[in-house]
Specification:
single chain; 224 residues; alpha+beta; Aminopeptidase; 2 domains; two-stranded antiparallel ribbon; 7 helices
């Protein structure tokens, strides 16, 4: 299994688009919105930092200094530095997980292809439109309509990040686990790493991660 820092690097590289000098530019997912001003991928083995293209060199230097003089992540200092020129509108913090080897797949998980993607239209029209970018995609289907899906939010040759959603009226039936495991098994069969991340206030998503027995390798922190 890859180290926490290796997984975090892979996660960041698929999470954002980068320019030639390693600055982040856009979120690597349609509609490709601007990346956060400052990102920290925190692990027990250390932190991986990324800065938005165009961030002032003075701010970069100050940010590096506060990290050099603190053992923990100095959130207050970071916010003070970034707030000097542009107010911080949001702070995202959430766990980042990796799937362990998956090899038991429920027959309820149906792979979505061009041939059957019509089942996505009523409830998941965006996934229907972007299926080629979102593959692999698995669903639980009732009455020819997808009610729970897991697909790739973003991906590269090395990794794919899961996006899972179950309609509210069908939650509590473990459909999210069924489609997530099928998606992860498909990704792993391609020799890629299956990842999953969420926010600390998304308790339903964290519950899915616990039931899937995912391994947390780090924490996402970004300032926008």
């Amino acid at each position: 299994m890859k180290s926490e820092l290796e997984l975090m690097e892979m996660h960041i590289n698929v999470l954002f688009k980068h320019n030639e000098v390693g600055e982040i530019t856009l979120i690597n997912e349609p509609p490709y919105e601007i990346a956060p001003r400052f990102y920290i991928g925190s692990t027990k083995k250390g932190n991986v930092k990324r800065f938005l293209k165009g961030l002032k060199s003075e701010d970069l230097n100050e940010l590096e200094k506060v990290f050099d003089t603190n053992d923990s992540i100095p959130l207050v200092n970071i916010i003070q530095i970034l707030n000097k020129d542009h107010h911080i509108d949001s702070l995202w913090i959430g766990p980042a997980y990796v799937f362990q080897t998956v090899n038991k797949i429920s027959s309820k998980a149906i792979k979505i292809t061009e041939a059957n993607k019509q089942c996505l239209l009523p409830n998941f029209p965006y996934t229907y439109e972007e299926l080629e970018l979102k593959e692999p995609c698995y669903a639980v289907i009732e009455n020819d309509i997808a009610i729970s899906i897991c697909c790739s939010a973003r991906q590269s040759d090395e990794v794919a990040e899961a996006s899972v959603h179950t309609l509210e009226n069908f939650r509590g039936k473990e459909y999210g686990l069924i489609v997530s495991n099928a998606w992860a098994e498909d990704v792993q069969s391609q020799g890629r790493t299956a990842l999953y991340s969420t926010s600390w206030d998304n308790y339903a998503s964290q519950a899915v991660a616990r039931k899937l027995k995912l391994v947390q390798y780090g924490t996402d922190i970004h300032f926008s």
